[in-house]
């Protein structure tokens, strides 16, 4: 194992440590440890706190999350994201379920100067927005029961914090195959989303078109609904060829 990887693993084991402690634990000289840490710090892989102790940086945490991401889903969805972004000019996003959240794993930026955008790795509860509710509607009953039974934060007056309202919306999404979100996470924003269904019959992801409600008239909404549903169905079919449905 290289010295750099050995030092990173040593720091991960102790969570945070001073230069002297890391040198001792890793079996390196003080100067060798200092040089490696300086390189890691410049790159964002480690962070040094006010107490001079080092810990793993956000960049390493993001790489760790990406290593566990569903790369087949990301690859299968790439063309669909391109098409949704080209059709709408708006932001197109791909998300996956992450415990009781939805997490963004790929994105295409809007061509508008005023745009909606979420960073890769960003998370929101499944009861909020287009993609989260689209996936929740096609999630196992135990997850739905967990979300329906837990307290829900109101991000805006439109957030589905009322249990009956959320149940009704989940039923509507299951019937129509699409979730249209307006103002329930951020005022003035919309999301038209559809679930991607995995081999077990539950949602393994969701695609959406997201933008500002001022640009979403009724005709545009209908076009987006058709486009997003077709895109999600194509990705579902592509995944079934990779991992055949039972």
Task: Describe the structure concisely.
With 246 residues, this protein is α+β, with helices and mostly antiparallel strands. Helices cover 48% and strands 20% of the residues.
Could you describe the 3D structure shown?
With 246 residues, the protein is α+β, with helices and mostly antiparallel strands. It has two domains: 3-65, Orthogonal Bundle (Arc Repressor Mutant, subunit A); 69-242, Beta-Lactamase, CATH 3.30.450. The protein is 48% helix and 20% strand. The protein has nine helices and nine strands. It has helices at residues 3-14, 19-26, 30-43, 58-67, 71-88, 129-137, 141-149, 163-176, 218-242, and strands spanning 16-17, 46-48, 54-56, 91-98, 101-108, 123-125, 179-182, 189-197, 203-212. The strands form two sheets. It has a six-stranded antiparallel beta sheet, with helices on both faces. α2 packs across α3 (30-43), α5 (71-88) runs antiparallel to α9 and α6 packs across α8 (163-176). It starts with a helix and ends with a helix. The model has no long low-confidence stretch (mean pLDDT 91).
């Amino acid at each position: 194992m290289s010295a750099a990887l050995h030092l990173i693993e040593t720091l991960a084991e102790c969570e945070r440590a001073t230069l002297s402690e890391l040198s001792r634990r890793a079996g390196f000289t003080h100067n060798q440890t200092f040089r490696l840490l300086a390189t890691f710090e410049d790159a964002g892989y480690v962070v040094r706190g006010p107490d001079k102790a080092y810990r793993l940086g956000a960049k390493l945490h993001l790489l760790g999350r990406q290593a566990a991401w569903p790369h087949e889903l990301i690859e299968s969805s790439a063309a669909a994201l391109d098409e949704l972004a080209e059709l709408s000019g708006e932001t197109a996003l791909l998300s996956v379920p992450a415990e009781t959240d939805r997490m963004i794993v790929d994105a295409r930026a809007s061509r508008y100067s005023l745009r909606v955008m979420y960073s890769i790795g960003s998370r929101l509860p499944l009861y909020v927005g287009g993609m989260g509710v689209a996936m929740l509607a096609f999630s196992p009953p135990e997850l739905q029961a967990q979300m329906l039974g837990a307290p829900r934060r109101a991000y805006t007056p439109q957030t589905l914090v009322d249990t009956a309202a959320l149940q009704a919306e989940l039923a509507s999404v299951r019937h129509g195959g699409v979730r249209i979100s307006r103002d329930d996470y951020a005022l003035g924003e919309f999301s038209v989303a559809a679930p991607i269904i995995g081999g077990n019959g539950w949602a393994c992801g969701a695609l959406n078109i997201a933008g500002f409600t001022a640009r979403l008239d009724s005709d545009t909404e209908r076009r987006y609904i058709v486009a997003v549903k077709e895109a999600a169905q194509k990705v579902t079919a592509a995944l079934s060829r990779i991992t055949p449905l039972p």
